Amino acid sequence: MRHIPTVDDLAADPVTHHYDDMIAPSGLTNLLGTVRVDHDLTAVSAVTFPPVSQGLTRTAASFVDGRLVESYGAPITHEWRPDRVRRSVSLPGLDLTTVTVCAPGETGIAIDVRAANTGDAPRTVAVTLSLAAGAARSAEAWLDAVAPEERNRAAAGPSRLVFRNGAGTAWSVQGVDADAEVRLSGIAPAAGEHEVGIGGIERGGEITVRLDLAPGETGRFGYVHTVGATETEAAEAFARIAADVPGAVADAETYWDHQLAAAFTPGNDEFSGHLPVLETTSEPLRRLYWWGVLGTIWFRRDFKDNVLGRSYDTLMPNYWATTTFIWDYSLSSITHALLDPAVMRRQVEHWIASDIHTHFGTSSLTGGPVGRWYSVNDYAMTRLVHDYLRFTGDTALLDAAPGGRTVAEHFQDWAHAWQGLRGSSPLADYGEIDNLLECVSSYTHEVASLNAANVWNLRTLAEILTARGDADGAAALREEAAALVKEVADLYVPGSGHFAARQPDGTRVPVRHVYDFSVVGTTIAADLDDQVRREMVDFFQRELRTGVWLRSLSPWDSDASFSPRPDHQWNGAYPAWPADAARSLVALGEPQAAIDWIPGLARSANQGPPGQAHFTEEAMPAVNGGARKAPPQLPYIIDWACSSAGSYVALVIESFFGVDPVVGSTGLDTSRACIADLDPDAVLRGLRVGDRLVDVRADGRVIDA
């Protein structure tokens, strides 16, 4: 039994589909940039290697013998792994396969194209790739969901087309590693401003490779697409990759196996920390744990001129490249604290030096703010710093002063920020839908989740003051929290299992949402009486949980008709919500309910890293038994992968193994563990807590490694 995954262990189930089926196109990364792998045999979109972007520009659509491959109506099979996507299709007398990779260490991609003659006569197969580019280099942060793109002009070269933007600051070189016919499109440049609309992007031209194949013979060529801030950068990268496309494919597998091994290896050469190895006979639990690890590593970005040196993006491959959202990063907080604590500290200090009440994240291109304020930010920052402190033991962070004030002072601000948001009620008013869940119109103003989080923030600050010797200050905070938690509990709708959102006029609007269930359960479960806890669990099991995923909003909620977005509505869930709901079940005293759900959830880890949302089974048919990823197009606008995947790591470490370090202590109390009910022989091996490296066993023993 393998305890450290390889790319084969994390391979998605093959997905076979026709043109424009409800399938989210997958993504690839080499941690320098990203690409979207489209339905077509060779087409790719959004080839993005900061600082050069191309929006969602699509290129390399394939024609075989002069006909668009998509138009044949033949199903195309996609097989994703972290290192590559293999695509295959059978046409009359011809089997075609491609393998797409992001070339390690390069600002480009490679596609190995192979055609096999399955007929009984020799034939010449003409494979044509239609090429386009939208290379751009913005001097500003990428402030929109879709990265910048510009009109490019193409020039023909040997077996390639060279694209450039008007200023000559962004270049794309696309071509093949074989003799080829190269033709410019011949279309007169549009007179108006560049706009990608229903007609797509302006074509630059096309490249045709002819393969002479005997019966049963297979021929090949490679397509390479590189970008750069100068023609020389892009051309040199093209030459390096094109010199050995099959070698680039092999290198990608080696590269990703190394990343995965490094993530679990103390003292590795890739990360400033590592994650513990999970030894368990439960294949579903192991699968979810690895899913969370992969989905965090997947967003590491080491591109040249990253202002933070290294950052972790939030979405890919369609939206918000180079942006790190505070909220999503916090949902993988424990994972970051263990895997890459030096990067986490740098990111947290960067946010502290900014005004977290004016944006939802920051750009790794400029360091500047992106977007509007999210109501969760104070809770998210408290959680980030707390997890960093308790797992690293680096309490010196509290005395650091990014932006001129100490982190300890900022911690006080976050714990009391709610007081400035009160109206006539003792609870904080968190505003309207754009500051909260965006697609649930009733989830506004005085919501139970973030007000419960304020109780937790106060108690967390008390823990830190205790560690710093301020017993009186800690006691005052605990008294404040005890008074506030009674007001939060007043939002509960008796007998229902869910809470109400109080509006400015005092109206209480019942909201049957998983976010209340998860945050209330993971922050103030011990303050709720037994009946309320039982009712909350019953509500979750009855109205939110499905076999392999969950509904963010109950379909019995009046607001279920408001929006089709599956990240927070009835028809699906954001990827962290199942993990956090399972954590809440454990905290509410029903660990068996979480354990029973694990095999179903694990079936949804079959389409690459967690998506920004997966549909429930009743909204969309499952993919080989797993909850289907939602697609990027309207009205869903959901990305293929999301960085909050680390929440599944937290579920295993914190909830199932009961690992809950206290700031300022080297001890480790695992008395709340429930893993023995799932696997009595399970072990977390090599967990770092401060300066200790320990093994945590299912029976509660903590042994220095």
TrEMBL record:
Q: Which GO terms describe its biological process?
A: carbohydrate metabolic process
Gene3D superfamilies, per the entry? 1.50.10.10
Name assigned to this protein: Glycosyl hydrolase family 65
Organism ancestry: Bacteria, Bacillati, Actinomycetota, Actinomycetes, Glycomycetales
